[in-house]
Write a structure and sequence with these properties.
about 140 residues, mainly beta, three-stranded antiparallel sheet
Length: about 140
């Protein structure tokens, strides 16, 4: 009769430098909610974004990156160029580079989504704000 033997060894997966995470940033609070960088590597960044009910991000544009948004929970109103979409759990949207866009939570529970950014430069200063509920536009 074969016996089941429990092992306590753990294997370590060694990833090449281009795939290895550069560390997880602390959550950054914003007037509309918060975001946390989950992983960042060459040419990409993955964030968890939470938007408070009734709040929205700036109408904005990025010169150096595109964004994919996947809704985890809640409802997202997405403005992308001249189109507006209403997304719910497990639905997604793509925002091309150099396209005006906005993310809004029209619901009554927090909106949680995963954002995947792709581009040559992914800094938080690559934001051109056209309209902002929190007076963060440059005049």
């Amino acid at each position: 009769m074969a016996r089941y033997q429990e092992t306590t060894q753990t294997e370590t997966l060694h990833l090449p430098p281009a795939i290895t995470s550069r560390g997880v940033a602390a959550t950054e609070l914003r007037p509309w909610g918060a975001f946390t960088v989950l992983e960042e590597g060459r040419g990409y960044k993955i964030k968890r974004i939470e938007v408070k009910p009734g709040h929205r991000l700036s109408l904005q544009m990025h010169h150096h990156r595109s964004e994919h948004w996947i809704v985890v929970s809640g409802t997202a109103r997405v403005t992308c160029g001249d189109k507006e979409l209403l997304l719910s759990n497990n639905e997604s949207s793509y925002v091309p580079q150099c396209t005006s866009h906005r993310l809004e939570n029209p619901g009554v529970i927090p909106l949680v989504l995963i954002e995947v950014q792709n581009g040559e430069y992914l800094g938080e200063d690559d934001i051109i704000r056209y309209q902002d509920d929190y007076a963060r536009t440059k005049d």
